[in-house]
Amino acid sequence: MTADDFRRTITTAFSTAQVRAAADKAIGARGINFIDTRTRAGKFLGGDKQNSTYSSKPLPLFFFGRIAGISKNGAVTVKNTRGNITPTFSKNEVAWRTARNGKRTAFLIGGYRAYRAKTGRQTEPVNLTFTGRMLNALRYLITSGAGGLTVRFDVTDAENDKAYYTNLRRTWLSFSGEEIQKLSSGLQDEIAKGLK
Questions:
Q1: What DSSP string runs through the chain?
Q2: CB 112 within 8 A of CB 59
Q3: Each residue's pLDDT tens digit, 171-192
Q4: What is the pTM of this model?
Q5: Which neighbouring-strand residues pair with 153?
């Protein structure tokens, strides 16, 4: 093999590797879009909570923060942990219970579902976007190498743990069989496009 042959072989190898890396990144981005779109639509791939709705089981108001005030007509205002005032819950939305030690606790009768409705958020379907922070905070890192394509989170350990445990109950960080087929055929198309 001459020096020119070697140079052409190396150039072709690097060019092919660059095409494959570009194709992998395009497919990785498409896969991320599948996950994001499906999750925002409230569609999950499995888990014991995949088809459940937001809970309407009564929930203690301290779940949302501390009681900031009770009006004369019995309405309760809660201040959340960041100091923001959440909506005021009417007397009909709150039930009071007295514990054996004499302390009273207020419960939101409609539970988390009622809280979401009161704060102007959708209640159907479950889509993991109370504030959008978790889903929007997931930064993906797409790498391509000899082992193939890797799509992973570029997040803190705490963010990763939150996503992991949420995924146990409602599988969203995965691909369906149909999505895998689309990604596979898309990869072939991307490579062919890059080689032209």
A1: --HHHHHHHHHHHHHHHHHHHHHHHHHHHHHHHHHHHHHHTT--S-STTTT-----S-EEGGGT-EEEEE-TTS-EEEE-TTS-EEEEEPGGGEEEEE-TTS-EEEEETTHHHHHHHHTT---SS--S-SSSHHHHH--EEEEEETTEEEEEE-S-HHHHHHHHHHHHHS--SS--HHHHHHHHHHHHHHHHHHH-
A2: yes
A3: 877 788 888 888 878 777 766 6
A4: 0.60
A5: 140
CB 107 within 8 A of CB 59: yes
Q: What is the CA 146 to chain-centroid distance, rounded?
A: 29
Amino acid 53 reads: T
Give the tokens for residue 81: 């942990």
